[in-house]
Structure formats: structure tokens, C-alpha cells
Amino acid sequence: MNIIELFTDKIFHIMSRPHIILRSVFFKTYSELKSEMDNLEAQMEGAKKRERAVALKKVKQLCKEFGFTAGMLQGVLARGRNRTPKT
Predict the structure, then answer these.
(1) pTM of the predicted model, to two decimals?
(2) For every one of its 87 residues, what pLDDT tens digit does the chain have, with 9 covering 90 and above?
(3) Rounded to whole angstroms, how far apart are CA atoms 73 and 64?
(4) How many CA atoms lie within 13 A of 20 on its CB side?
(5) Which residues contact 14 (CB under 8 A, 6 or more apart)?
(6) How far apart are CA 60 and CA 53, in angstroms?
(7) DSSP class of residue 59?
(8) In this structure, is residue 87 part of a structural domain?
(9) Does 70 fall in a domain?
(10) Structural domains in the chain (count)
């Protein structure tokens, strides 16, 4: 069988079973979706850890640059959490 015949045979095989192609592309099972979700959650956790480390590094750099102390930040954070909206 030459390459053209092989290719034609494969195309015919694929085209004769569109329902299988549609199912595999568009309709995933619960377990497939659950597996994807677990994978995404793991990726999100890793990304959050990396971004948190970058953010903390930036905060430390800004504190050093502007002379902020832990006490100064703690006071600002405490007021910010308990703040009531202005009416």
C-alpha cells in the first residue's frame, strides 16, 4: 500500500465515523472533566505560589525603598479591614 492509498484509507475511516470524532472532541465524560479540573487546580496552586512569592518580594523591596516598618503596615492593614463604607 503506497502513501496515497494509506492516507485515503485513513481519511475514509475517519469520515465514516463522525459520531466518534464529535464525542472525543466535544463531549467529555465526567471523569475526563474531573481529571482536567484536578490538573487545572494543581496548576492554579503552583501559579498562585509563584505569583505570591513575586508579590512578597515586591512588597519587601518597596518597604526597604520607602522605609516602611512592620508596625506602619500593620496599622494600615488593620484600619483597611475594619473600614466602613462612606455614605
Answers:
(1) 0.51
(2) 677 877 777 777 666 666 665 566 667 789 989 999 999 999 999 999 999 999 999 999 999 999 998 888 887 776 655 556 565
(3) 12
(4) 5
(5) 21
(6) 11
(7) H
(8) no
(9) yes
(10) 1
